[in-house]
Amino acid sequence: MCGIVGVSLREPLEPHRAAYSLYYGLYALQHRGQESAGIVVSRDGEGSRISKGMGMVPHIFAPDDLKRLQGNVGIGHVRYSTTGSSRIENCQPFIIDYKDGSLAVAHNGNLVNYAQLRAGLEGEGRVFTSTTDTEVIAHLLVKELLIHKDLVEAVRELMRILVGAYSLTLLVNGRLVAIRDPLGIRPLCIGRLENGWVAASESVAIDTLGGRFLRDVKPGEILMFNGADEEPRSARLYRAATTAHCIFEYIYLARPDAILDGRLVYDTRVRIGELLAEEHPAEADVVTSVPDSGVASAIGYSDRSGIPYRETLMKNRYVGRTFIMPEAEMRDIAVKLKLNVLGPQVKDKRVIVVDDSIVRGTTVRRIVDSLKARGAREVHMRIGSPPITSPCYLGVDMKSKGELIASQHSVEEVRRFIHADSLGYLSLGGLVRAVGMTEKHLCTGCLTGVYPVEVPGEKWTARQMKLSHFTP
Ligand code: SF4
Questions:
Q1: Which helix (H) or strand (E) holds 48?
Q2: Which of 56, 78, 128, 466 has the highest CB neighbour number within 10 Å of its CB?
Q3: Is 416 left (phi over 0), alpha (psi -120 to 50) or beta?
């Protein structure tokens, strides 16, 4: 998971306006990645100016950095690593200068055929400065641009080669371009600003910039922005038999105030809680949530069950999301720092705790233990997704089955491990109903072990990215 943004603005009175817009857009997407961030801007194709670094958005960009980034068009990226380790060489956007110009790329997603594509490019003598799949995309696009000259034809060829998830914002010779993979696995949307256009992973970035959300970028679509006043040019390069929107965006990844593929994430999470109450009722005194992603579902559970909702876990908002931090030791410390129990709300009570998912089980066990240590009589865990049993190969850091408690253990074994009095997971059918799409339009790979693209050694469905399944 990463966050991307792009703006194409009217030639500004203040020459650093694009950099500031990207900065605030990235700040709104900070939940999608906290390891590094970068901004590239250009003015009418006159070369690019870049600033990037490790850490969170407000710590990387000082006001003087942003003032230096003069230009009216640009892209930005917040990163959390799925391919390539957490180091400065892997920060995005990537810039490549080539014979006919320059290209900058910001990428959200993960390529399944990264290693094979990279080996091919290295065999042709191309040199890589990072270990990420994004640099592979940049090199491949340059290669196709040199062959085809026309951007649309080059991207059509690129899409034919790439297997996996990719939402992209590009700066091609100073022009903003937005691309979404043919299955629409990761989100991407566009909006209108008073002084131009914006493309972003989630609509919350558009809201933050005071813009008007227009629509999602369609799966397989390229949008080329030509200045602030012209409508962007669109071409639908491939149309898959079905889409494969990541169901986890609705459960956990996206902000609740985001609109993804026409659905407000908050509404989906409330419905998740309502259906969870129907599928797994419990006798209890209070319903509570693990903040923040469990809140809307806990409210839904409370509404449907009639059991009052109370806050019992107080979050230290200055600690990052534990799930995002890749090192195990960092995760441990972060969990301890992150949540404190409001003792009187749970003492002698039977408590239903709603959370979005269980990955390793260690965080939830600490929460159950903390509630019991503060006097909770019973703790009933309710989870707004089915058990996560398989890794994600498409841009979320769930790397191996060994890290996923539900891939090795039954629900009863997980219940015992987390010390809960009862444990109930929402069924896949319930989750799909809550999202409001049919299952065939969603990726459910980490829940079912069946992926929407060909993953070596795994099961995959017939909507895989083979050209024969697309109608150009
Ligand atoms: S495998 Fe899971 S997390 Fe990964 S894209 Fe599919 S639904 Fe999303």
A1: strand 48-54
A2: 78
A3: alpha
Q: How sure is the predictor about 311, in pLDDT bands with cuts at 50, 70 and 90?
A: very high
**Residues counted in the chain:** 472
How many angstroms separate the alpha carbon of residue 43 from the centre of ligand 1? 37
Active-site residue, from 2, 91, 443, 446: 2
| CATH node for 3-244 | 3.60.20.10
Instruction: Give the per-residue pLDDT at 331.
Output: 60
Please calculate the CA angle 393-398-403 and round it to the nearest 5 degrees.
Answer: 130
Domain segments of the chain as ranges: 3-244, 264-447
CA dist 116 and 120 (Å) reads 6
Amino acid in the structure at residue 266: Y
Structure tokens at 121: 């490019």
pLDDT digits (tens, 9 = 90+) for 148-186: 989 999 999 999 999 999 999 999 999 999 999 999 999
* Structure token pair of residue 396: 């979320």
Residue with CA closest to ligand 1 atom 4: 392
The total of other beta-carbon atoms located within 10 Å of residue 174's CB is 21
pLDDT tens digit sequence for 235-290: 999 888 889 999 999 999 999 999 998 899 999 999 999 999 999 999 999 999 99
Give the torsion through C-alpha atoms of 147, 149, 155, 158, to 10 deg.
10
Tokens representing residue 7 in the block? 């703006």
- Residue 58 Cα to ligand 1 middle (Å): 29
Mutate to test the pocket of ligand 1, among 293, 394, 439, 454 (most ligand atoms within 8 A of CB): 394
Nearest of 192, 182, 214, 208 to residue 25 by alpha carbon: 208
C-alpha distance across the termini of the chain, in Å: 28
How far apart are alpha carbons 216 and 105 in whole angstroms? 19
| Whether CATH 3.40.630.30 fits 264-447 | no
Helix (H) and strand (E) counts in the chain: 17, 25
How many angstroms is it from 399 CA to the middle of ligand 1? Answer: 11
C-alpha 25/C-alpha 403 separation (Å) is 33
Please tell me if the CB atom of residue 282 comes closer than 6 angstroms to any atom of ligand 1: no
Ligand 1 touching residue 247 (CB < 6 A): yes
Whose alpha carbon is nearest atom 8 of ligand 1?
246
* 190 bridge partner residues: 199, 215
Catalytic site residue 246?
Answer: no
Q: In the prediction, which pLDDT does 350 show?
A: 98
| Mean pLDDT of the region 94-108 | 93
Residue 127: count of CB within 10 angstroms of its CB:
7
